[in-house]
Amino acid sequence: MPPAKKRTRRYDSAKTRAAVLAQFAHVREAVEALTAEQLDGPTRLGEWTVRDLAAHIAWTVDDVTQLLAAPERPGPERLALLDWPFRTAGAAERIDAHTRNVDASDLPGLYARVAADYERALEDASDERLVVLSFGVMTLADFLVTRTVELVVHTDDLVAATGAEVPYDRQALAACTRLLADALAAKAPGGAVEVRIPPYAVVQCVEGPRHTRGTPPNVVETDPLTWIRLATGRAEWAAEREEARVGASGERADLEDLLPLMG
């Protein structure tokens, strides 16, 4: 009997819209409290300073407004939500260039303008509205889920660079965790390994004997932020296992060759 086809995960669009704004507000508060010296400090993102990172975070939300202001038209390729994590690496140079062109001289003013524009742009925007990216076309609802990934991942980058205490909106963290977990299942389809990221996601992946009941023979378990760091290349599998931030049991429960999912 063939395995049941997995259903695509659905996200509550109203909650996603609110989550993007909520997480952006958390980052905004943290950025506004940074000193000039902190803003000039380094990050784990190559040559980017904290100011560059702050500018990029603002742009990831402002991108929603800019894309909605552009005419709706067919693009080069229609993308499903799970296509997005695997396409971002190809846009790295363009993203870096765009970030460096953002005027970050007045970050409080930039963040205030971006938040207000985002709310106005979404007032009458349909979830099915198509937005055209450099590598394809997505619905607005799907694109907003990708904004939770950008915001959560870069919030963690900001915390790592500055030591600031920045809250994570629960809905944003959940959406980010689930999308990256589903991306793993798409990259390595199968049912041999169960990956648990409580309290937000459980997925099965990797070819091999499928688990149906009882305790799975191959289990990986970790917390949401550790999972996000692994999936985006901010942490290494072996190191996280050594520090007991990842538990892995079973001969197939080794995800090192499948990570990261995003560059």
What does this protein structure show overall?
Helix content is 48%, strand content 10%. Mean pLDDT is 93; it is low at 1-5. With 263 residues, it is of the alpha+beta class. The longest helix is centred in the middle third of the chain and has 23 residues, at 140-162. It is globular. The chain is built from nine helices and six strands. The protein has helices at 13-32, 36-39, 50-69, 92-101, 107-122, 140-162, 170-187, 224-231, 237-242, and strands at 130-133, 136-139, 193-197, 201-205, 219-222, 246-249. The protein starts with 12 loop residues before the first helix and ends in a 14-residue tail after the last strand. The strands form two sheets. It has a four-stranded mixed β-sheet.
Write the layout of secondary structure elements.
Layout: H1 13-32, H2 36-39, H3 50-69, H4 92-101, H5 107-122, E1 130-133, E2 136-139, H6 140-162, H7 170-187, E3 193-197, E4 201-205, E5 219-222, H8 224-231, H9 237-242, E6 246-249
What's a quick, concise take on this entry?
This protein has 263 residues and is α+β, with helices and mostly antiparallel strands.
Label this structure with key terms.
10% strand, 48% helix, globular, 263 residues, four-stranded mixed β-sheet
